[in-house]
Write a structure and sequence with these properties.
By secondary structure, the chain is of the alpha+beta class. The chain is built from two helices and two strands, in the order H-E-H-E. It has a domain of 30 residues. The protein has a two-stranded parallel sheet.
Amino acid sequence: MRRFLPDLIDRVWKGQMNPGKVFDLELPLAQVAEGYRAMDERRAIKVLLWP
């Protein structure tokens, strides 16, 4: 997965890919700890962090 990540992120930023089909929770970067907590508690599978 890691080798594909830069390309996937670039596609999301360019609007070529809808991250909603991949991520089930979006949080600002300042709430990264909450994102990890949500995944640990199984409230989220993949978290999108935005600046």
